[in-house]
From TrEMBL, chains A, B:
Domain Aminotransferase class I/classII large: 85-422
Biased composition (Polar residues): 1-12
Protein name from the UniProt record: Transcriptional regulator
InterPro entries with a match to the protein in the record: Aminotransferase_I/II_large, Class-I_PLP-dep_aminotransf, PyrdxlP-dep_Trfase, PyrdxlP-dep_Trfase_major, PyrdxlP-dep_Trfase_small
Similarity remark: Belongs to the class-I pyridoxal-phosphate-dependent aminotransferase family.
One GO term of the biological process aspect: alpha-amino acid metabolic process
Quaternary structure (record): Homodimer.
GO molecular function: pyridoxal phosphate binding; transaminase activity
Provenance organism: Hoeflea phototrophica (strain DSM 17068 / NCIMB 14078 / DFL-43)
Region (Disordered): 1-23
Pfam family, one: Aminotran_1_2
Amino acid sequence: MSRQMQQDSATMPTAPGGASTGHGLDWPALFATRAERMKASEIRELLKLLDQPDVISFAGGIPDPALFPADAFGAALTSALSGDSKGAALQYSVSEGYKPLRDWLVTRMASLGVECSADNIMITSGSQQALDYLGKLFLSPRDTALVGWPTYLGALQAFNAYEPSYDRLTPLGNRSAADYRETAQGKGGPGGGKVKFAYASADFANPTGETLQASARENILDLATELDIAVIEDAAYQSLRYDGDEVPPLLALDIERNGGIDNTRTIYCGSFSKTLAPGLRVGWVCAAKPVISKLVLMKQAADLHSATLNQMAIHQVASDGFEAQVARIKATYMARRDAMLAALARHMPEGVTWTRPDGGMFVWVTLPEHFDGAALLAESIRIERVAFVPGKAFFADGSGANTIRLSFSCASEAMIEEGIMRLGRVVRGG
Amino acid sequence: MSRQMQQDSATMPTAPGGASTGHGLDWPALFATRAERMKASEIRELLKLLDQPDVISFAGGIPDPALFPADAFGAALTSALSGDSKGAALQYSVSEGYKPLRDWLVTRMASLGVECSADNIMITSGSQQALDYLGKLFLSPRDTALVGWPTYLGALQAFNAYEPSYDRLTPLGNRSAADYRETAQGKGGPGGGKVKFAYASADFANPTGETLQASARENILDLATELDIAVIEDAAYQSLRYDGDEVPPLLALDIERNGGIDNTRTIYCGSFSKTLAPGLRVGWVCAAKPVISKLVLMKQAADLHSATLNQMAIHQVASDGFEAQVARIKATYMARRDAMLAALARHMPEGVTWTRPDGGMFVWVTLPEHFDGAALLAESIRIERVAFVPGKAFFADGSGANTIRLSFSCASEAMIEEGIMRLGRVVRGG
């Protein structure tokens, strides 16, 4: 448990500190200005110390490895490395990605309401790489990215490398395009900065677990159309719905408005990390051809292509039983979500509120104003041996000190009951 | 043959052209300024048309897939997906890379004269990713990178995303630090640009096949010390030496000068692509800890980590028989190099010169001044069905029209004799 806890983007450990041991170079003076925004998180350093078996962790936000289809992957890899395909499986391949996998994704996207061709799809090394590439494609220093308050920490980390400003994306339709535009110009210095895209995780978002309903998605598309900017739709958790009806992806709604994917402004980022396995690093981008063409040139220059063998294995396992695998993990995670919501209702004192996600891996807890999530974590670990992620890091403006993120994906129902009971004691003590 | 030909970074095909099919967005207006420097190469488009079995190709520059240890990889992957390791093999892992592989690399680097610890090593998705990350770490727009004329095209492509200027690195020690500094300031506009690093492929470089002798390496370190800049050592081909004694890596010479790796300015980029297999995308960076620490943060934000399973498989195959595998491929490539050098001597007319590489995959041919490599390629394909890469793309200043790159790694000795004979006829006709 404690090892897994360290391993999502919010909690991944880093190498030992940056100080040189001798009379080395003044590296910071040589680094590009963007390097100043690449910092180790204090929380992550704290969580590194927690590699202890008696800690119950709700920090991770990663899939339960017991649910990985390891045998299916073993068979797929053995097959890829036998017979005619073995040379190709280990050789360089094209930057766009393995064509049979892109074809499979065309069918998958169609089932979500997105009609496209293989030329609208590029394979990435996980959807994190898609976020990095999209930051690289759109953001010059001082451009503005619209993100939620809170939003996925990994998106902020990916975009930060390109030195943007952030403004708050609200899906309520209550702020005018002119207001967004003026704010971006004000932040851009002489000449003015431009708003380049709105980033949103539409389903069971990390960290809140919340889903944007169709009206909120339409609001985002309205705003993006008025601003004439792109929309980045992070669909990492989309397949993990436990209740309610599917809401069409932003990209599907955009196609409805504009008659075809090549006329849309929405860039959909998908991932196999939450459904099949994250360790193979396979995700995809689905968007208008001019965007995919440029991303392919970028990928060629950045890492040539994602691992050939991994794309073949994902294709085989997805073709043989994607739906069955997803059904299996949904049953497990849904029971854990239910256990966490029930335990929160039992053990949290008055004044504490939380989200009730229809899917995904996260519940987002808002504590009374005077709480500080980081201080609470220190207390919680020391006294009750329970871990979670303080919410502040998910806010581009540094607010949210009284929020925390709980993940239910990697704990058994019994551990969830015990852990939330302990957490309730800490909160009552705060 | 013709499929393989397309698949190194000089020749990899791209997605269909960037024009939108409908009334889509004005994407170029939304893209960051860096996107202007990401362009499809005309040569690459030409070579895409060549997927025909009767063409003899010296264009690729990729390993011969017949030499991949496919059975060893099959066994390693099966083992990683069995028993206790199977959850970890498919799970998220740390950004630094798989510890047993980093430990193996510590021993490997020691055998090259580089004493280091696992904290001096980060795993990358091929050495191409290391070049991208190092461009990202050091280059702000208008900073200067020193590169050879010619140099590895993929390095220029990786660095271009960060909008640098280039200046010519000569290993002859005949240009002063002050001169480099002034040139960089002149290119940087108001405030001035800075030289950030010198990039060099020290052994059997792509594209020339040439090796920097120890004195040339010392010259580069002298210059870098005077300019107080980093040195990026691209060691992708280093293991493929067929003749002569090993020359210590720049990083080893730097350690000798400065007493320990954490006091050095040299960043070594290694790869398993030319020795074990490129399709798994596993390489590494070895450098002072302050550089590795920053790269780990960067990697975490950019793609979380390289595929876990692939690192495990590379570790297993390398541990079981790296030296035997390298000996096997060296014997094959050496015979092909010899065949190509002999064929060039037999078939090339007066006035044509070429390099005599001690290793690697490339011979670099210089034709009389009036030749144009791109025009020669068109002729050569049309009349004689022989392909190669025109040299101009390897020059940051657009010179080198009368040069061509020949790769001997993927053609049998008989094909080499036949292909060079045909090429000789085309050159005589030019």
